[in-house]
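Hey Z.,

So I finally got round to the adenosine monophosphate thing we talked about over coffee. Here's the setup:
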Amino acid sequence: MSELNLILLGPPGAGKGTQAERLVDDFDLPYLATGDILRQAVKDETELGREAKEYMDRGDLVPDDLIVRVIVDRLNTDEASDGFILDGFPRTVPQAEALRDALARLDRSLTAALLVDASDEEVMSRISGRRICVKAGHVYHVETDPPKNDGICDQDGSRLVQRDDDKPETVQKRLSVYHDQTEPVIGFYEDAGLLRRFDGNRSPEEVHDHIRATLATLKLEGEL
Ligand code: AMP
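And the result:
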């Protein structure tokens, strides 16, 4: 197995972003988080940001064609040519099909779809304490993963804030969108034999250890 092409799946607040940060450190892979890309586009007031904003503010998904174009463009660049971690994409079965086809055109395929799962109750309590840094979106939790200095990012010193869509009403909506539109993606990867499940109710360290062990096994299998 020469390249690691990974996607992270799971409900909002299950800890995908935290795990992605650790995997990026472990494997030095480019990290493409569609939520971060879209939030940056909204901040920069680009065409993409203008189109995406109303959907995001409501807690709805942006249209498939919009987000598929963004990701396919990024996969076509050198940046992701030796592997990648996708977080927050695919969120629908048509997106998963588009990703499979785009990779096939590049003569590549996914290594694994890592599902970090957590109950709705756990998600609600986690998201209320979640804070992200304004500079790069590094993720913290006021109780379970606090920064060394209150309100300041350990990694780049920028301010920590609560995301607009982390308000309880919007989280409820995002959870129902997840159950309706994203859960079928789990079945898609299960059928393809690519799904690996992790218990997101456990501590970030435990989930990280488990993911690393799984990737090590996959690597071994690839070499046999
Ligand atoms: P996230 O940070 O991954 O929770 O994403 C924040 C918001 O961005 C979501 O609630 C959606 O409105 C939008 N978004 C992110 N990724 C996607 C995607 N793959 N498909 C559609 N909408 C997305």
